[in-house]
Structure formats: structure tokens, C-alpha cells
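Quick one - first record:
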Amino acid sequence: MRTLMKRFLSFLLAGGMLLSFSGCGTSGKQDGNLADNEKQEKLVINLFGSMEKSKPDLKNVARSAFDQTVAMAEERLGLTVEYRTYTAENYQEKTYDDVSLDRVRNHMDDLYLLNPDTIQVLGSEGKLADLSGLSCAENLRDVVKTANTVDGKLVAIPQEVVAHGLFVNKDLFDQYKLKLPNTPEEFMECCRVFKENGIETPIGANRWWLENFVLAQAYAKLYNGDDTETQIAALNNGTAKYSDYMRPGFEYLKELIDKGYIDAKTAYTYEAIEGEGPDFMAGKTPIVMAYWTAANAETAYGKPDFNLQVIGFPSELGQMPVISITGYAVSAEAEHLEEALEVLDVVLSDEALRLYSETNQVISPSKNVEVDCIDALKPLNDRVNEGVYVLGSNASMKVEQWGNTCLIVRELLGGASVDDCMAMFDELQEESLKE
């Protein structure tokens, strides 16, 4: 299971970055002796990530926005940021996470872009610098601090907050006089009506994102109550069980499958967007799930021929966005530790985040940066701005959530019982208590 989880989390980062950073790239090395000499005179900060610097004329706003924030740091600090890039061909069977762990543990670079589980592991090992003293950290949303704090230290900060939600064809809801659902019961009723009116499979699903249904129900009260830290501490010391939180969501998902609202067989094999996307865009499937950027990308769900609305997942507290957070981190043993921290402070400043967020139309990690979003995303955006959400990844939890929940949901799709799935969570928790 751990191997599968690593591969999944590599998909989370590398796959997500591909949607944002797709296109050709170069190492950013300039031609000509004068340019090389000038670079050699400057301090070089090495950044390990999943992308290279974009070509100057590359028409890719996401990549160019990131490069502009890096250029901002280079100009202000009088240094150069070199990109060291992960490619599957170079590392063969090693996942992005495997390579990241190895490079950080051997302090091979200064800056890193890391997945949630890697942030958790390296943070607990003391391999990542504490970023809480940076100026940019003062402006972070609470959700970012919560997700990326390990043993009291803020060890990673992202350039965007990734919110997952339900993408719905509002025209089909209107056709059958259905209101957009808030609770699990209302959502189940919508599926019943669609099924009885000839829509064979109301929910288009893939093998990656069904865990959002579970997470929204499992942790709605935990993250939106007054005792979040106390509940997480109880899970970490074993006085509370993850399986008790997860069971209602798994039972709900099993009911959706048993009633034919989700096709478990196809969901088990479908890749995200590629599998269920065509039927949704053709108006045949009323409901799919995806993340914020997919609503802006024409290669995903951007510009459909119907009224698209993106809402939170059903929970007892209403529509619930599920948030996953990666982050940029600095090696605690970086060769150029202070300078790397300075680079990150510029790249993650409100000025740089505003440029990045406005260009890419994403949710900023800074509470001071608000970006206008398309109408379809406003329901999801409103909930996030209200502070209503569930964390799908949280480095302060000893049992990694996002990848493990995804893989156990896949066991459910493959025929495992809810009790079997809960036993898997219990086993993971027992392993964590031994560490």
C-alpha cells in the first residue's frame, strides 16, 4: 500500500503541475560567454521541482507567472535560481516523492517543491527549515499554516491553495427541478431523481478523487469546530480512531455504488477527467468532481455549453470544499540557507502571489490576496473565504490522509467491504503509533 500511495502522490503533484505547466521547457541556460560569466559571478540557488524554466516565448501563463516571481527574487537579491528538474526517464522506477526524499536528506538542493506526505515525513525528521519567521508567513491563511505545520514548525508554503469540489451541470438540475444539494441526504435524492429519469450513472467518477466524498463527511466538524487541535492530538496518540471518522463516508460511498449512482468498475480504471470528462461535457452526466483549475482550463472543464457550477461536497455542515496543499520548502542544511529563505520570502510575498494568482486565477495562500474568479467557481470560493473547508492533506496528522484514503477507496471500488476498509485505517494508525 505504501508503494501505491507514493505513486499516487507523485500523480497529485506531477499531474497537477502538468495541467498548469504543460508545454516544452528548457533548463533556462543562456547562450553566450558574457551571459555565462555574468551568471557565474552571482550566487546560485538550486530549486528542485517538477518543471523547468519556460522558454521566453512560451505561451503558458501558469509557467510564465511562476518564472516571473522567481525573476522578481533574482533581481531584488542579485542572485540566480537554477531549476533542477525531476523527469521519469532520469529516475526510472523512482517516484517524484522518492527522489525528493533522497535529495533533501542528502541536502543536494536549497529549495524544493514537495507533496503533502513528503512535507510530513521530512518535517518530522527535522530536515526542513522553519519558515514561520518569514515576512510572508504573517499573511498566510490559517488553512495553509494548519496543513503544513509539523511539530510546531511551518515547514512549507504553497503558491496556491487547491480546492476540490463537485462540478455540476446546473441546466440538468433545473430541468428536473432540483436544488443544488447541501447534505448527503439531499445529494442522494438528486441522484435518485436523475436515475429514475433515465440518466444511467448520475456521478462520473475516476480512481483518484472519490476520497473527497469521504473526507468531507469525515472531517467537517473536526475542521469547523473549536477543538481541531485536540481532536488531531487524540488521533495521533491513539485515543481516537481514524476509522471512526471515516466509517460514515465509506458507508455513504458504498450506498452510492450499490444504488448504481457510481459505476465502480469504470471508476476503478478511469483516469482523472479523461474517463468521465467527455460524458460530462456532452451533457450526459450531471455530476463529476475535480479541482479549482479544471474550471478554468479548456483542456478540462473550461467553457462548457451549459451552466457549470462548482460546489462543495455534501456534509452535515453543508457544501464542503476539500483542500489539498503542496508547498515550497527550504532544506534545513541548505548550502545557502539564508539566501534560499530570502528567495522564498520574495516568491511568496503578497506582491508576487498577487501576480501569480491573478494570472492563473487561483486561490492565494495569502489572506490579503483575493482574486476574481469565474461565476462557476463562486460557490466554492465563497465557502473557502468564509473559512469553511476540510483539509484533505494535513502534515500534523501522523497518518497521511489524501493518498491513503484514495487507495482504500479503490479497495472499496474493487469489492472490499466497509469493515475491510476500516481495518486498513486501523492498521495504518497502529503503524504510526510505533514510529
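second record:
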Amino acid sequence: MGADLVLQNLLSPPVLFFFLGVAAVLCRSDLEIPSPLPKLFSLYLLLAIGFKGGVELKYSGINTEVMLTIAAAIAMSVAIPLVSFPFLRLRLDVFNAAAIAATYGSISPVTFITAESFLASQGISSDGYMVAALALMEPPAIIVGLLLVMLCGPNRSKGQPGVRWGPLLHEAFLNSSVLLLIGSLMIGLLVASQGELGVEKMKPFTDNLFYGVLSFFLLDMGLVAAKRISDLRKAGTFLIGFSVLMPLLASVVGVWLAGLIGLGQGNALLFTVLCGSASYIAVPAAMRMTVPQANPSLYISSALGLTFPFSIIIGIPLYMQMVKRFIPAF
């Protein structure tokens, strides 16, 4: 892995602010972000990336590459939980194994956004349709996780109610992340189709503020992730190893698929990041509702306390090196 890529990523403002948040917790500082603000920052980032993605999708159009990429993204969100589950069952019960498998089949929007910022610093372009792949990878992972519980879990007693598919599908397809991403993407697509005036009016909000808000959000993520590190002790070395090795394996498959589809280096990195990340928002919320037997400290702490920091600090430059090695620039 190129040391210059790692250093450049480590010295980017958002990642440095992430480290500041971690350091604040380790030093027992009283630094904290008031509770309403992280949610607002998260909504802003999703809105901005969705809107910009819709604009770029209008410019690039929907073609075979777009459809193949989205299909491959959905396939990975199904395959990763199915591959992860048997390994997790070596040490964990059905409920926890299914919840963690679903967590790693889904994605981290903040990791994706950080990867976009990394590409911008490298002067490498990407296409807006990757946002559609981002949004569509969450629902399949949630559904597969529940199906694993139903098919492999202990038999339900006769008096126990079955799965409430209505609330589950509502959470999978209409949770706040998916709805805001897809809605913002559609708005960006519609605005761009009417000309440049509407796009230019949104730029001060969606472009100029973006990097600063991302830095502030990662500061809060550093605070939260550092507080979750202690929870990893409950998981043991098995889950800690899985939290790093599974994303690496998925990223290798992601690079291979990106090359097979014919993606450029920018899109290939974003696709690889989607394959190698893990959800710490949408899937945990769905698992708490549908699989209450699973321990949230296991699937949240592994995704947020280890996989997320690994991805934004080491994973992104490592994946970029893999992409550059196997996918030619054009």
C-alpha cells in the first residue's frame, strides 16, 4: 500500500477531526456534541450527497454500466450476509450471527462520503449513480438477516406471533437514510433536467458547506467510536478479527466485480467501499425491532468501534491502491 496515500488520507481534515474525537474520549475530556446536532449533520450529508448524485445521474444518464453496478451492489448486499452467517455461527448464536451478518451486508453512508472526499483530493472523478447503489444496498441486507433467523433459528412456539412483514418492509425501504437519499437523488435529477439555474442555487448549500459539516460529523463519530471500544471486549478476538477480515474479503470481491463491469477508478473505489463497509444506523435500528434477542453491543460496537475507523483510516487508501493496481485509468 502506498505510504503517500495513507498519509494524505490521515492528514485530511475530516479524518483528523475523527482522531480529535477519539483523543478527547481517551483523555477524558468533557468535549461533546449536543444530541440534536449529529442527527442534523447526518441528514444534511445524506441530502447533499443525494442531490449531487441526482444531478450527476442526469448528466451521465442511465446505461448498461449503471444497471450492472446497481445489480452487483444489490447482489453483494445479499451475498455478504449469506457468507458471513456460517462463520459467525462458529462462535455466536443464530440471533447475534444473523444481526451481525446483516450489519456487514449493508453500508455506511459516512464511509462512502469520506471516500468521495478522498477521491476529490486525488483529483479522480466519480459518477452520481453510485448514490443509487448506496441507497439500494440497505433493504436487502435487512431482509436477508431476518430470513436467516426464520430459517435457522429455534422453532417458534405456537402462541408466539409470526414476523410482522409490514413494519419490517417499511423499515427496510422507508427508513430515514434510504428515503432521504432516494428522495434527494430524485430532486437533484428533476432540478438538473430543468437547467443549470436550480443547480447553481443549491451549490452554496450542497457544495460549499459539505466539507466542514463532514469534519464536524466525524468529530462526533470519533467521540462515539472511542466510547464503543470498550464494548469490543465483550465480543472477543473472534468478532474483532471478523470486523476487519470480512470487509477486506468483501473489498477484494468488490474490486474484481468493478473490473468485470468496467468501472473507472473513481466509481470502482466507491463500489469497493460499499462492499467493505458496515451499517451502524439503519440495520441496527431494524434489528432492534425485528430481532430483539440479538445483543446490540455486539453488532453496533463491531461496526462502529472497529470497522468504521479501519475503513476511513486504512481501508480507503488500501482499496484505492488495489483499484489502481487492477483497474487501468481512463
